[in-house]
Amino acid sequence: MNRVHYSQYNESKLIDKMLNGKRSGFIVEAGAFDGETFSNSLFFEKERDFSGILIEPLPLSYERLLEKNRKFYSINACIAQKVPTVAKFKMFKAGAFSGRSKSFKDSKNKPLDYEFIYVPCFSIQTILAAINVKTVDLFSLDVEGGELDVLKSINFDKIRINSFAKRINGHSIASEKETPINVFELNISCNHEITIENEFHASTVIEPKTNAKIENTNRS
């Protein structure tokens, strides 16, 4: 039996109902993990012909995401209120959780084994401008405690976001949000890869390999 919904608690089923079965929309999934496990966007890619972008800060998760051959754009970066910057993340060696640097403890109240990694951050406006997107039908947000920082970073005068699906303290919430449309002046384009640069680093937005507009999909 083929799987239809991949989200943890069938959130995509509820979101699909909220969007009235909309087809050919656009999704931002921030905290995309490996592109499949608990994904809120995969249903819409497969069943509703959506396009979108997957944003995943952790390098190991992002490598697994690329192996899934999703049709969405993707970027190994995080979203922050103050940019340009590099965020400090705790990556737990057990692999269960990760998040921006703060205290995580196990059930016995002992510190978990982790290492620090440093991740480039951009505003969502910069990321969407790089792929020339002005309207988002669904913004799925699950970034292990960084949700408020992401929400504060959004300039609603420049981006129209019609609905949110966000996880707060382990609970998923779907809501509708109407924002005005404004012209996006920044438009970066290329045939295969888009690089967003600032004084600290550069990150690459990878176009989907199955995109018909891409002539050369061999990255070797």
UniProtKB/TrEMBL annotation:
GO cellular component, one term: endoplasmic reticulum membrane
SUPFAM superfamilies per UniProt: S-adenosyl-L-methionine-dependent methyltransferases
Span of the signal peptide: none
InterPro entries per the UniProt record, alphabetical: EGF_Rcpt_Signaling_Reg, FkbM_mtfrase, SAM-dependent_MTases_sf
One of the GO BP terms on file: endoplasmic reticulum to Golgi vesicle-mediated transport
Ranges of residues in domain Methyltransferase FkbM: 30-162
Coiled coil: none
Superkingdom as given in the UniProt entry: Eukaryota
NCBIfam families linked to this entry: fkbM_fam
Protein name (database record): Star
The species this protein was found in: Brachionus plicatilis (Marine rotifer)
